Amino acid sequence: MKIGLFIPCYVDQFYPKVAIATYELLQKLGCDVRFPMKQTCCGQPMANSGYEHLTKGCDTNFIANFAEFDYIVCPSGSCVLHVKEHLHDENNEALASQMRKRVFELTEFITDILKIEMIVGNFPHKVGMHQSCHGQRGLKLSQMTELNAPFFSKPEQLLSKIKGITLVSLSRKDECCGFGGTFCVTEEAISVKMGQDRIKDHEDHQVEYITGGDMSCLMHLEGILNRQKSPIKIIHIAEILNTTI
């Protein structure tokens, strides 16, 4: 199968190691991975700010770059959810509709499409898992704690098999970190307080690393950690899964 690697713009600009780890991991799992060089923003920031009508150029470019692939894989639940719910083409809506079904978040693709239950890796550290809202509530990557339903978590399923890792159980494991894209700009004080609350939960469990599937949320938490001069580090889940023994 041909895989198109969809890398969010903030990952490309600020966290390229996450993109490289995702590419290398998919290769290790036997995928034929390509990175379309002309890809740009998917349009999520504009749509979230009420300007979805200005994202047609983003849609056109996305379709031009990824139409040829069997699957489109991205290490960001929020960007994947945006494409799944908002990708359109007034000239070929049938193609856009097909492509919306071929876009997957990284851990979702590994567990649901590749059907892989265990990845060989080594990460001898105490880790807290931050489950971002878009991934959990939009893509259903893990169960919501307010529901009386069996627990599951696709990211934690993969992390739990990594050698040496200690994956802690947080007190409020699916609480929002406060990032919310443009929310952290328009409502800075609330956003920061929500982030501080999430970090406190990780601190109470004495984690060394905070991981997750959305680098945007981790970027928000990293900024707060740095200002607090905390020893806790952030790391994207792809970077942990890409480690070797």
Give the fraction of residues assigned to helices.
40-55%
Q: Which structural category do the helix and sheet elements fall into?
A: alpha/beta
Largest sheet: 4 strands, parallel
- The secondary-structure element order is EHHEHHEHHEHEHHEHHEHEH
Bulk shape = globular
Count of helices? 13
Poorly predicted runs are none
Put the structure in a nutshell.
The chain is of the alpha/beta class and 245 residues long. The protein is built from 13 helices and 8 strands. Helix 11 crosses helix 12 (215-227).
Write the layout of secondary structure elements.
Blueprint: E1 2-5, H1 9-14, H2 16-28, E2 32-34, H3 44-48, H4 56-66, E3 71-74, H5 77-86, H6 93-100, E4 103-105, H7 106-113, E5 126-130, H8 133-138, H9 154-159, E6 166-167, H10 183-186, H11 188-204, E7 209-212, H12 215-227, E8 233-236, H13 237-241
Parallel strand pairs: 1-2, 1-3, 3-4, 5-6, 5-7, 7-8
What does this entry look like structurally?
The protein is an alpha/beta fold and 245 residues long. It has 13 helices and eight strands. The protein has helices spanning 9-14, 16-28, 44-48, 56-66, 77-86, 93-100, 106-113, 133-138, 154-159, 183-186, 188-204, 215-227, 237-241; strands at residues 2-5, 32-34, 71-74, 103-105, 126-130, 166-167, 209-212, 233-236. The strands form two sheets. A four-stranded parallel sheet has the order 2-1-3-4, sandwiched between helices. The chain has a four-stranded parallel sheet with strand order 6-5-7-8. Helix 11 (188-204) packs across helix 12. It is globular and about 55 Å long. The two termini are 27 Å apart. The model has no long low-confidence stretch (mean pLDDT 95).
